[in-house]
Amino acid sequence: DNGGIHFYTAGSSAATRHMTLKGTSGYLGIGVDNPLSIIHAEGSESGTGYRFINTHTTSGFGVFIKGGGTTADRYALRVDDAAGNERFRINANGKIGVNNNNPTAKLDIVEATSIAAVKIKSGTSTNQNASLTFSNDNGGGLMHLGVFGSSATTYGANEANDGFISSTQQLSIN
Fold it and tell me: DSSP labels for 127-154?
């Protein structure tokens, strides 16, 4: 391995290799003897496989991921299911794809079944309303699309071009 470092653990039987630092490439393998990227981790775990925890209570951040490409087809983050099907990506151009490896809008969701592609629920109170708000570049030209909670009597401050669905399933446009 040309100067690689291997880490083993030993129980009651023979030692088992758990981590490899390749001497030629500097690649780190966790649970894999021949890492194929800078950090390559593999393992079989019935619970959470990997954890990154920042315990700073006031100003800590989560995970920072920076992709190496700048063209639209390069992703900064990609998530596949266990079968290798791509389910989510954030491309270098800032477009997000859900079940779509070539998003053409800022958020591009593909749902090939009769399941709703997006569901938004606001709160758990029957008096709670939910809405989407659309606006132009300076915050004007607002349009709200919303639904009443089942016990709500008003949608709040409706603007002249608001669309909403009442608690009795009626579509209204002010």
Answer: T--EEEEE--TTS-S-EEEEE--TT-S-
Burial class (CB in 10 A: 0-12, 13-18, 19+), 145: middle
CA distance 25 to 5: 12
Burial 101-135 (b: 16+ CB within 10 A, else e): bebeeeebeeeeeeeeeeeeeeeeeeeebebeeee
In this structure, are residues 120 and 132 in contact, taking their beta carbons and an 8 Å threshold? yes
Q: Judge residue 52's burial from the number of C-beta atoms within 10 Å of its C-beta, 0-12 exposed, 13-18 middle, 19 or more buried.
A: exposed
Among 39, 44, 14, 16, which residue's Cα sits nearest to residue 29? Answer: 39
Query: Which amino acid, one-letter code, is at 93?
Result: N
List, for residues 5-14, the tens digit of each pLDDT value. Answer: 988 888 777 8
Query: Residues 102-159: pLDDT tens digits?
Result: 999 999 999 988 888 887 777 676 666 677 777 777 776 666 676 666 665 555 544 4
Distance, CA of 130 to CA of 139 (rounded, Å):
19
Q: What totals of helices (H) and strands (E) does the chain contain, helices first?
A: 0, 12
Report the predicted TM-score, pTM, of the whole model to 2 decimal places: 0.68
